[in-house]
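PROTEIN DESIGN WORKSHEET
SECTION A - STRUCTURE
LENGTH: 397
TOKENS:
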């Protein structure tokens, strides 16, 4: 059973000449699209047949070009954030690909700027039916767009204003360890076993050890969060978003009223969670819960959820829903698309990363407990969604 990522599905090694070739091919393809369509007079926007052709070529461009080199180094960094070569190369590629993507940023901005009197005719044209939702979203968001030059500046500054802050903080955190019961544990693993400690005393001791390590990087983390918040505030003000959440709500195509109502319902019902924790304290036979007790297990789960057993059980469970889900999970393990276990330098937590045109990878930090089992199941849910949505194409997947 393969429990480590097989990144050779992308490239043989960091010395693979295809990495540079793919970078150059992407840059050339985006430049060619820019040359053809970034004209002073964009007459193709005025005729539906020409508009359809430009949209089809844009989608073909997205299908035929991927950011595979950048994702390759992204995955390498998440396996070993202490490797400065990976982090440096990822930053270089991020900047390089941003410059390439900027060459075609004009296109969606030009589509969004199509005169309102043309919208109804475009959205009702049967030949453009496939692109209706895509275009409608662009039209709806147009008022928040800046000029092409301004959009390019914002995309170029994203690396130093946010991504490099995030990457360096994660690098620092992933390198930290604590000693617990004679074992040197990476911080992600220490966090993941906190709720498994049987006594409040042990949970408090382990939590205190973790917090001592985190306090050592707190000053840098403070700088990070202030930089990110300031960057977010500046961009929201430039675009005209009234509230910090409005950009995300719009990007997810949610109804702001629904989200605001959700916040109100949760806020006015904090007493439910307070009651929950009072009940939990009684069940744990504790007078008071410490913060480290909030996820403590109630009762004893005798079964171990070793990765191999968790895999076998999920194959069974998913197969009972539909065989295709078991087949996807089996192929992920067979192909090396799941990295299962924690280690020093590896990114903490768990995620599923799926990019159109590339293999989907799942990162876990599996410990042999129930929480790790449910996390495994949860991330495979994202993987199923990613795999099945590929049929939607690059615009909608």
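SECTION B - SEQUENCE
RESIDUE ASSIGNMENT:
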């Amino acid at each position: 059973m393969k429990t480590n990522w097989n990144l050779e599905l992308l490239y043989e090694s960091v010395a693979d000449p295809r990495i540079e070739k793919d970078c150059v091919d992407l840059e050339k393809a985006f430049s060619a699209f820019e040359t053809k369509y970034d004209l002073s007079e964009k007459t193709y926007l005025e005729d539906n047949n020409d508009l359809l052709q430009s949209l089809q070529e844009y989608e073909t461009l997205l299908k035929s070009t991927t950011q595979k080199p950048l994702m390759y180094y992204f995955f390498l960094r998440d396996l070993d954030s202490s490797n400065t070569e990976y982090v440096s190369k990822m930053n270089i590629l991020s900047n390089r690909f941003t410059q390439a993507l900027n060459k075609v940023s004009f296109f969606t901005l030009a589509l969004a700027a199509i005169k309102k009197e043309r919208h109804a005719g475009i959205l009702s044209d049967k030949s453009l039916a496939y692109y209706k939702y895509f275009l409608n979203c662009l039209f709806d968001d147009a008022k928040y767009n800046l000029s092409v030059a301004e959009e390019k500046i914002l995309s170029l500054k994203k690396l130093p204003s946010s991504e490099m802050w995030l990457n360096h903080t994660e690098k620092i955190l992933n390198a930290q360890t604590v000693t617990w019961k004679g074992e040197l544990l990476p911080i992600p693993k220490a966090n993941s076993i906190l709720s498994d400690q049987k006594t409040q005393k042990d949970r408090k001791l382990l939590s205190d050890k973790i917090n001592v390590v985190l306090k050592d990087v707190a000053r840098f983390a403070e700088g990070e969060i202030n930089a990110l918040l300031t960057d977010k505030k500046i961009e929201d003000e430039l675009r005209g978003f009234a509230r910090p959440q409005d950009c995300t709500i719009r990007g997810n195509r949610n109804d702001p009223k629904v989200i605001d109502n959700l916040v109100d319902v949760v806020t006015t019902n904090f007493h439910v969670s307070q009651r929950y924790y009072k009940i939990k304290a009684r069940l744990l036979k504790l007078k008071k819960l410490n913060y480290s007790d909030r996820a403590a297990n109630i009762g004893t789960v005798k079964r171990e959820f070793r990765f191999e057993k968790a895999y076998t059980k999920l194959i069974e469970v998913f197969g009972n829903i539909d065989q295709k889900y078991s087949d996807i999970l089996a192929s992920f393990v067979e192909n090396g698309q799941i990295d299962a276990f924690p280690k020093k330098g590896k990114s903490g937590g768990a995620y599923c990363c799926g990019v159109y045109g590339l293999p989907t990878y799942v990162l876990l930090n599996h410990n042999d407990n129930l929480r790790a089992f449910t996390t495994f199941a949860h991330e495979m849910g994202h993987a199923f969604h990613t795999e099945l949505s590929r049929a939607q194409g690059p615009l909608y997947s």
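SECTION C - NOTES
The longest strand covers residues 177-180.
The mean pLDDT is 94.
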